[in-house]
Specification:
The chain is α/β, with parallel strands linked by helices and 286 residues long. The protein contains 11 helices and 9 strands. Helix 2 packs across helix 3 and helix 8 packs across helix 11.
């Protein structure tokens, strides 16, 4: 749409004295072409509310509003940024609501009306924890329809990794069980102020209405954690003691007991967790 009425971000930062703080994991993305690219990757925003975490001076916030988001609810921990965000609220007819505080402690759902898309240049120090929370709610499907999130490239690779790769692990399983994550594009360190020491990447997640394979979330997490905490060991060794005659259960799930965790597919992990659930006499929880 390119109707942004506000001054360049560098000017906003200078006016409000918004030097990025390492303690808050801040790296400001100033290129409005890139913030616009992220907003467009989130899909059609015109009939959606958008949740943004860590807007900082508001570069991505402005892009989301410019792309037609019905409303943006932004959670910002740095009080220094609030005046700049208020200027965006005023310029965009109140379509931005800013919640001041820690995103790990604030539940924004009362401010959002579905459908909801989450779009954020996540602070590096809380990005993975927030993702895990969005992927592991008490009930599924969750309140959000999609996630479009920026991570360190290494984290993005772990999210989208397939069996057999070194990056494949617990985060891969968790992300791909209930959502369809795709690496969208990379963003070089030079695009940020200050430039981080790593390349960043944007990952887009479309939620699945039901998990890809049946599994009890708690048991699946337990199995995957045990397997990858000792990823150099064979599965029969890393899961030893979870049930009597573990090798038989591994074979029943289609897993070679001599395989290592990084060689086991999501479907196989889910099948094994279901076998354990039945053996333990627990109800299915998806």
């Amino acid at each position: 749409m390119n109707q942004d009425p506000l001054p360049p971000l560098r000017e906003v930062i200078a006016t409000h004295g918004l030097a990025a703080r390492k303690s808050l994991g801040q790296n400001f993305l100033l290129d409005l072409n890139l913030t616009g690219k992220i907003a467009r990757r989130a899909g059609d925003l015109t009939k959606c509310d958008v949740l943004e975490i860590g807007p900082g001076p508001g570069g991505l916030t402005r892009a989301l509003l410019d792309e037609g988001a019905r409303k943006v609810v932004a959670i910002e921990m740095d009080d220094r940024c609030l005046p700049a965000l208020q200027e965006i609220t005023d310029a965009y007819d109140g379509r931005l609501i800013t919640l001041s505080g820690d995103a790990l402690k604030i539940d924004p759902r009362s401010h959002l009306n579905g459908p909801v898309r989450v779009v954020a240049n996540l602070p590096y120090n809380v990005g993975t924890e927030l993702l895990i929370r969005w992927l592991t709610p008490a009930e599924w499907p969750p309140y959000w329809q999609s996630l479009t999130l920026m991570f360190q490239k290494e984290v993005a690779q772990r999210i989208t990794a397939q069996p057999g790769s070194k990056a494949y692990g617990r985060l891969s399983i968790l992300s791909q069980w209930r959502a369809d994550p795709k690496m969208a594009f990379e963003i070089p360190a030079s695009a940020f102020t200050p430039p981080p020491k790593v390349t960043s990447a944007v990952v887009h997640f479309e939620r699945l209405e039901t998990p890809r394979f049946a599994a009890n979330q708690k048991i699946l997490n337990e199995v995957v954690a045990r397997a990858f905490n000792q990823r150099r060991k064979m599965m029969r060794a890393s899961l030893k003691g979870m049930l009597p005659d573990m090798e038989t259960h591994l074979i029943a799930a289609g897993i070679d007991p001599k395989q290592r965790a990084e060689q086991v597919s999501l479907q196989q992990f889910c099948a094994l967790s279901e076998i354990l659930r039945v053996q333990r006499g627990q109800k299915p929880i998806r």
